[in-house]
Amino acid sequence: MSIQRLQAHWGFTRMPFGRSLAPSMLHRHDAHAEAVARIAWCIDQHALGVITGEVGAGKTVAVRAATAALDTSRHLAIYLPNPSVGVRGMLHHIVTALGQVPSFYTATLTPQAADALATEHAERGRTPVVILDEAHLLDNAQMEAVRMLTNHNMDSGAPFAALLIGQPTLRQRLRLRKKPPTTSRTTSRSPDAPTPCSAPTRSH
Question: In what order do the strands lie in the sheet with 127-132?
């Protein structure tokens, strides 16, 4: 049976359960609601949060639901989907998203990104939310760059929130002694997002 005949048989105007569903159309089972609440708390506290889970567990969907509920006049989401761009590409994306022209030299690009994040919060009254997807693929230099961005006002706080989204190996990497500074700055770590199970299915 073709997709068109299937849709006509059930009276669908489009195929259900697609990836393009609006956050308001998502099924709010307990695990999803907890993840969204933790993410919202991290954003509110200008914290560094880690969301891990297996492929297809709903990590990015939970982040999308949390950011969709934000007041756009007070928050600016900066989404980086591809870690393979390296440190310079990551900082370039942040600076560009904040409306500035990135510096040519990496040595000046790092403080420029930090200043741009602080300016967005202090002068425009908006909290940048930096979302790093596939964060388990970040290299050591990128991890260190994220940590350095959180250095603000003698380490008394950060003008932005950061969310690291990745597979369970990200959590394992952060636990290694090789990453103590990044781990110490992580305010909230979500429990590994659960794979589909009978309880959410029954509630649906």
Answer: 75-80, 127-132, 161-166, 48-52, 186-189
Tokens 């908006």 identify what position? 126
Report pTM: 0.75
3-state DSSP assignment of residue 131 = strand
Distance CA 156, CA 178 (A): 24
What is the Cα–Cα distance from 84 to 166, expressed in whole angstroms? 14
Q: Is residue 200 part of a domain?
A: no
For CA atoms 84, 138, 169, 27, the dihedral sign is: negative
13 domain-assigned = no
The answer to whether residues 135 and 164 touch, using CB atoms and an 8 Å cutoff, is yes
Q: Quick check: is 11 in a domain?
A: no
d(CA 160, CA 66): 16
Q: How many CB atoms lie within 10 A of CB 184?
A: 10
Q: Give the count of domains, the chain.
A: 1
Q: pLDDT tens, 32-63?
A: 788 889 999 999 999 999 999 888 777 888 88
Instruction: State residue 149 phi and psi, 5-degree precision.
Output: -65, -25
CATH code, 78 = 3.40.50.300
